[in-house]
Design a protein that fits this description.
This protein has 130 residues and is an alpha/beta fold. It is built from six helices and five strands. It has a five-stranded parallel β-sheet.
């Protein structure tokens, strides 16, 4: 099972060959593919800031309607706090949204699919980096 990070989702919407190839692989090998709620927020923030947001809103709605969205619930929030604390002890800072995505994935034993290297700094988190 996999949680698609925001960077991966953006690359999918931009038809990145590397991201499309990974998504095809995941479709063949993973029973479930998820998007974490903080990624939904990040995607919406990007669309709302865009000068072409009117057409992009409908595209994003349709795209997200096809995805399984994972919430940030109690256990995920606790896991995210543990991750943030462990990183802070090492002097590492990662954006709050990415810590929440990692917490959601870690709480469920999922793999984060991303191009962002900072996820690999999170001890015990399974990461598929492309």
């Amino acid at each position: 099972m996999a949680v698609l990070d925001t960077s991966f989702l953006v690359d999918i919407t931009r038809n990145s060959p590397a991201a499309i190839e990974i998504l095809d692989q995941l479709g063949r090998t993973e029973a479930n593919i998820f998007v974490a709620a903080p990624s939904v927020m990040e995607l919406w923030a990007g669309v709302l800031k865009s000068k072409k947001s009117s057409g992009k809103r409908k595209e994003l709605e349709e795209f997200l309607a096809s995805m399984n969205i994972l919430p940030l619930e109690r256990e995920s929030a606790k896991r995210a706090a543990e991750i943030e604390s462990a990183l802070a002890e090492k002097g590492i800072t990662i954006e709050a949204e990415d810590v929440m995505i990692a917490g959601i994935a870690a709480a469920r034993g999922e793999t984060v699919v991303t191009k962002d290297a900072h996820y690999t700094r999170i001890s015990g988190l399974r990461v598929l980096k492309y």
